[in-house]
Amino acid sequence: MDLFTIVFYAFALLTLVSASVVVFSKNIVRSAFSLLFTFFGVAGLYVLLMADFLAITQLMIYVGGILVLVVFGVMLTTRQINVDAKTSTVQTLPAALIAAAIGGMLAGIFLSADWKRMGTLPDTVASGPKIGEMLLTSYLLPFEIASVVLLVALIGAAMIARREKRA
Amino acid sequence: MNAFFRDVIVFLQNPGLTHFLIISALLFSMGIFAILTRRNAVMVLMGIELVLNAANINFIAFSRYTTGTFDGQVIAIFVIILAAAEAAIMLAIVLNIFQNFNTVNVDEINQLKD
Predict the structure, then answer these.
(1) Number of other residues whose CB lies within 10 A of the CB of residue A95
(2) Which of B26, B70, B86, B103 to mutate to test the interface with A (most CBs of A within 10 A)?
(3) How far is it, in rounded angstroms, from Cα B111 to Cα B114?
(4) Are A134 and A88 members of one domain?
C-alpha cells in the first residue's frame, strides 16, 4: 500500500459516506452540511488526478458559492418557528430500483470496458498555466459565452428573486 | 476461487481509472435517487449537484488516464460555471415559489397561476 492508495481510499470513503448522508438523511440542514464534506472529498480526488487548479476551483465555487446558496435556500424556506427542517420522500422503492439499475449498469460498463489509452498526463506539470492557455486559444468562444451566461444568470436571478408578491 | 480473490485484491490495491469511474457511478446513482425521491426543491438541487460532480470526476479521470491532454479539465471548469449559474437561478425560483405557495415541496406545486 503506497501513499497514493491510502489517500485515494480516504477521499473516496469521505466522498461516498457524506454523499449517502446527503441522500438518506431526513434532516435537510444535516444534508446541506454533509454536502460540504462531499465537495471536499471530490476536491481531494481532483488533486489525486493531477488537477490542482480544478481542486481549488471546486473549493472556491462549490463550497464558497453554491453551498452558501443552498444553505440560504434551506434557511429561507424551512419554517424555523416549529423547527420543521425534516423533509419527506416519495416513491422510495421505484426510485431505489432505478438508481440501483443505473449505478449497476454504469459500474458494469466501467469494469468491463477496455478504454483506449492515448497517453497520461505528466505528474509534474502544473495545470493552471495550461488551462489558462487553452481557455484563451482553443476554448475562447465557450469562455466568452460562459461570461455572457453568468451575466444573464446574475441579472435574471436578481430579477426573479426581487419580484414582489402581487396583492 | 483463490485466484479470483487474489485478482480482486490486486485490483483494489492499485487505484486507477476504473476506481475513479466507479466512485463517480456511485455518486451519480445517489444523486439520481435524491432527485427522484425528495419532495423539497432544495434537496432536488443537492441531488443535481451530486450528479454534476460525478460527471466532473469522469471528465478529469479520463483527462488524466486516457487522453493525456487538459481538455477534460477545461470542460470541467465550464461544468462548474454552469452549476454556479444554475444554483443562483434555482435559489431565486425557489424563493419566489415559497413566497407564492408557502411551500417548496415539488409535488404540491401544481399550478402556474397563484
Answers:
(1) 18
(2) B70
(3) 7
(4) no
pLDDT digits (tens, 9 = 90+) for A76-103: 877 655 555 666 778 888 999 999 999 9
The amino acid present at B17, given as its one-letter code, is L
Q: State how far Cα A51 lies from the chain centre.
A: 15
Q: What structural domains does chain B harbor?
A: 2-101 (1.10.287.3510)
Give A89's strand partners. B38
Contact state of A23 with B76 under an 8 Å Cβ cutoff: no
Extract the C-alpha cell encoding A119: 497517453
User: ipTM of this model?
Assistant: 0.89
Chain A CB contacts of B30 below 8 Å? 19-20, 22-23, 99, 103
Residues 23-52 of B with CB under 8 A from A: 23, 25-34, 36-43, 45-47, 49-50
CA distance B34 to B51: 10
CB A39 within 8 A of CB A59: yes
Q: State whether A103 and B25 contact (CB < 8 Å).
A: yes
Indicate whether this model's pTM tops 0.80. Answer: yes
Give the domain-ending residue among A84, A112, A140. Answer: A112
